[in-house]
Amino acid sequence: MKTLLKTHWNRFIRDEEGASGIEYALIAAMVAIALVTFVTPVRESVVAIFEDIRDALQSAASGGGN
Length: 66
Prior knowledge:
Blueprint: H1 2-14, H2 18-61
């Protein structure tokens, strides 16, 4: 059992295919950071626009419009 474990461990250590997985994970992390950076201000702007529309509709519905 020890030799089987040792054989698998050595094969795992020499395997270089996992490096591309790590590279993809780093790219995904960078994309996530970029999305968080740019999506938050856009989200806030869109929410503000819809709040303005809601307020205008409520004002018009209550007879306070022009």
